[in-house]
Amino acid sequence: MPLMDIFDIAGSAMSAQNLRLNTTASNLANADSVSSNRGETYRARHPVFAARLAEQTLLGDPLTAATDQASAGVMVTGIVESDAPLQMKYEPHHPMADADGYVAYPNVNVVEEMADMMSASRSFQVNVQMLTTVKSMAERLLSMGQ
Amino acid sequence: MKIGFDAALGVHPAALALRARRTEVLANNLANADTPNFKARDIDFKSVMAAQAEQQSRAVAALRTTHPGHLASSPMEPDGDLMYRNPTLPSLDGNTVEGHVEQAEFANNSVNFMASLRFLDGKFRNLTTAIKGE
């Protein structure tokens, strides 16, 4: 039944946006995590979203999945680290400074992360609202004829 | 006079099922609002209902298959009514979901769903009244 599938769709989107918020929180928390070694410095992480096809759902009925080509929700295919250059700051008195006096700061763009955070929370809200609407529709449907 | 659920309920069960399906398609668009390269999809309610009405009026003249090599005639494509939405503004990541458009369509669709439900509810009430004869 289509209406009940929406709970799954909205749930997948909410968990995806939640993961996006998590990575944003991690990036912002580590925005100033310095390291003297470039290889060990924290790098901004971002999730990769992909549309989940009906055939890929665990509960997907192969009969209906074959006829319904519409995708069913979102999935996170992985988390990638940003390959933007690290911020090298000249701080010779810093305890973590390297031989040349440079400290490697993470490549986290705080402005970008804040914008990402707002986008993720708005998308999460949209899905919650959608779920509320669908719930009232389903309730109304169940009380039909009474 | 024809008596039966199909005759009594008319077009409303089909409309309700289509509305429910459209809700799923629109929900999927909203869920994928941040997915790169996702293309928003939608069902043209009017054309699907028209096709269904035409099919009903023709009383479904299905072709008989007498040989395994014969192609089965499917009167209606199960997925052919699912179309892609044209975005008003192209997005850099190839996503064609526009939050405001989808939300408006979703709200519109859920109101229409409620309307179909109410019509159907009324039909059932009529049937109950007829059966009871009160």
Features:
heterodimer, A: alpha+beta, two-stranded antiparallel sheet, two-stranded antiparallel ribbon, 4 strands, B: 134 residues, mainly alpha, 4 helices, 4% strand, flat
Structure description:
- The complex is a heterodimer of chains A (146) and B (134).
- Chain A is of the alpha+beta class.
- Chain A has 3 helices and 4 strands; from the N terminus they run αβαβββα.
- Helix content of chain A is 46%, strand content 19%.
- Chain A has a two-stranded antiparallel ribbon. In chain A, strands 3-4 form a two-stranded antiparallel sheet.
- By secondary structure, chain B is mainly alpha-helical.
- In chain B, 54% of the residues lie in helices and 4% in strands.
- In chain B, helix 2 (12-31) runs antiparallel to helix 4.
- Chain B is flat.
- Chain B starts with a helix and ends with a helix.
- The chains are: A alpha+beta (146), B mainly alpha (134).
- Chains A and B meet through helix 1, strand 1, strand 2 and helix 3 of A and helix 2 and helix 4 of B.
Draw up the topology in text.
The complex is a heterodimer of chains A (146) and B (134).
Chain A: H1 2-29, E1 45-53, H2 62-67, E2 71-81, E3 87-90, E4 102-105, H3 110-142
Antiparallel strand pairs in A: 1-2, 3-4
Helix pairs in contact in A: 1-3
Chain B: H1 5-9, H2 12-31, E1 41-43, H3 45-57, E2 82-84, H4 99-132
Helix pairs in contact in B: 2-4
